[in-house]
Structure formats: C-alpha cells, structure tokens
User: Fold ABC-2 type transport system ATP-binding protein from Micromonospora chaiyaphumensis.
Amino acid sequence: MIELRELTKRYGDRVAVDGLSVRVKPGVVTGFLGPNGSGKSTTMRMILGLDAPDHGEALIGGVRYPDLSWPLKTVGALLDAGAFHPGRSARAHLTALAASNDIPGSRVEQVLRIVGLSDAATRRAGTYSLGMRQRLGVAVALLGDPGVLLLDEPVNGLDPEGIRWIRDLLRALAAEGRTVFVSSHLIAEMALTADRLVVIGRGRLLAETTVAELAAGDDSLEDAFFRLTSGTTDYRGVGAS
Ligand SMILES: Nc1ncnc2c1ncn2[C@@H]1O[C@H](COP(=O)(O)OP(=O)(O)OP(=O)(O)O)[C@@H](O)[C@H]1O
Assistant:
C-alpha cells in the first residue's frame, strides 16, 4: 500500500504537486496519469525520498521512505533507464547492489532470468539497447523482491514487444499481491495495463477510479481523459485544418 497525504511540492512560485491525497492498493496495477508537467515524476520522487515535500507525506506500508531499514526489500523503482555505469555488466551491477542491500547473491540470477537478460548478463551496460537498459532497470526494481513497485513511464521508447512484456510483467506482479504504481501520459496503454487509475492535472487529483468507470461516461477512455484534464495544461496546439 502507498498512501499520499496532502502531498505538496513547490518549485519557486510554481506548485508542482498540490495537496495530493491518494491510496494505492495492493493486488492491482494502478495507472498514474496526467498531461506533461502535471506532477507525476515529482510525486514519485517524493515517495522515494528523492525530493522532500513542502507539506504532507508519502508512506509506503505506513513508513516514510527515509525510515525504511532496507528500502530495496520494500519498494522497487524504475525512474531512469539510463542510470547505469556504462562499463559495468548487468550481473556486476546487480551483484554489487545485492551485496550492499542484504540481498542473497542467488537472487541476481533469478531477476536476470525474469527480465530475460541471462544471456547478456556479462555484457557492459553501455552496449545495451534502450529496451535492454529498461529490462536491467526492472531487474534492479525486482532485486529485493519488494511488495511495492513504482515505475515512471516504463514503456517510453520501447518497441511493441517490449511494451507488451512490461504490461504482462506488471499484471503478473500485481496478481502476486504486490502494489504496482505506474505513471504514463499514454491513456491507451494504461487502458490495457491498469485496473485502477489516479488522474492528476496541475498537481491536483482529478479522479481516482477504475478504467471501466472512467470510460463509462464518455465515447472512449481518451475522451474521458481529455475532458478531465482540459484546462490543466499550459500549452495548446491548433488543429491542422
Ligand atoms: N527540479 C525542478 N525545478 C523546477 N521545476 C521543476 C523541477 N522538477 C519539476 N518541475 C516542474 O514541476 C512541474 C511538474 O513536473 P513533473 O516532471 O513532476 O511532471 P510530469 O507529470 O512527470 O511530466 P512529464 O509527463 O512531462 O514527465 C512542471 O511544471 C515542472 O516544470
């Protein structure tokens, strides 16, 4: 369970996250949706203790991230697919992380298998494609066998096979009873992946609902999303005609 209580973050006079109160439940995939700049990444960074809230708090299983004894065993995160030492192999990277987080070395081979990198485990991460780096990021998130998973835009830049792989994996992890919170600005992808949706605009909660409920009142889920978020962006294009 992830619980956000009046979570608020300001950058200068801009409010990036504005009094956000949400409960993200275990056993289902919860999609975190909002237009560009609506505060999704900032919220995730606060849950992970990478940014400090100006007000409110983010709790994982009732505990603030900085107070967790072994964070990787409680919450796994995928924020930035490129964040690996390019000269290190996937296996070396995971082995070092396991050693410093009280995780048995045998778990490294397990997660390499889960993400399909066993055969590429000795290659330097710098030679990996975007899809392989994303898989290594997922391996890191799963290393501590955590009950809570947080993924920020995990399908960005992936090919259709990679997108389907992430989707199936997230659904399987939720079916095991884990809390899975995944951000995206792609409503169509979320419709296929998520059971529940948290929608924000300008850092504020716009809807906390199921995919089915949100789609019910409009012609499509996309229409429902545009209706909810219209007026919450600072940019607007004009039609081609
Ligand atoms: N370090 C920072 N300094 C100043 N402003 C920031 C910083 N990080 C985020 N912001 C601002 O906070 C707001 C929310 O940004 P955030 O990246 O959380 O949104 P997002 O929903 O993740 O967007 P996207 O979908 O484009 O990734 C934006 O207006 C952004 O410009």
Summary: The pocket of adenosine-5'-triphosphate is lined by residues 11, 14, 16, 34, 36-42, 185 (CB under 6 Å). The first strand starts at residue 2 and ends at 11. Residues 76 and 142 are 6 Å apart (CA to CA). Strands lie at 2-11, 14-24, 29-33, 55-60, 75-78, 148-152, 179-184, 196-201, 204-210.
